[in-house]
Design goal:
InterPro entries: Calcineurin-like_PHP_lpxH (IPR024654), Metallo-depent_PP-like (IPR029052), Phosphodiesterase_MJ0936/Vps29 (IPR000979). By secondary structure, this protein is α/β, with parallel strands linked by helices. It is built from 4 helices and 10 strands.
């Protein structure tokens, strides 16, 4: 059985964008699991994603207020086909990240995080896959907004795709 995961972070709706781009909503509709690694900013977006996603896992970020913090954990953990996932908003500086995350998440196979708005895809010496989807609404110093798409099959990550969005919210290139 193949499971598709859509990974989002740092949406900052409605501060950085009024809403998610239409392409992201299309991806939500196609995904078996949606993951949001924090900085939603509004509970309205959490409600919209909860209503639309088949399965939603999310955490709060540093820009999320009391209502979101009351509804979301700082760290989320779940399994997909026996693969152990975790999500957190902040992981600290890029330097030393792999070592720190190996120590903090010894029981995870994949860690999804946000905060930097910088896409990231590495594997730690301990075998933990670290993924940051960037932001679909606020590219900051990146050339594009982005999100990640993952396919899990037979208990293993089969592929991870970074999807780049142009300013109009459509696939770039």
């Amino acid at each position: 059985m193949t499971t598709s995961l859509l990974m989002l972070a740092d949406t900052h709706v409605p501060k950085r964008a009024r809403e998610l781009p239409a392409e992201v909503w299309d991806a939500v509709d196609r995904a078996d699991v949606v993951v949001h690694a924090g900085d939603w900013v509004s509970a309205e977006l959490l409600d919209q994603l909860s209503d639309r996603a088949r399965v939603l896992h999310g955490v709060y970020g540093n820009n999320d207020g009391a209502e979101l913090r009351a509804r979301l954990p700082e760290i989320a953990r779940w399994e997909v086909e026996g693969l152990r996932f975790a999500a957190i908003h902040e992981t600290g500086a890029a330097a030393g990240r792999e070592r720190r995350m190996d120590e903090l998440f010894p029981d995870a196979d994949v860690l999804v995080f946000g905060h930097s708005h910088i896409p990231w895809d590495t594997t730690t010496p301990g075998g933990l896959r670290l993924l940051n989807p960037g932001s679909p609404t606020d590219r900051r110093r990146q050339p594009y907004c982005s999100y990640q798409w993952m396919r899990v099959d037979d208990g293993a990550v089969r592929d991870v795709e970074l999807v780049l969005l142009n300013r109009a919210g459509r696939a770039a290139g």
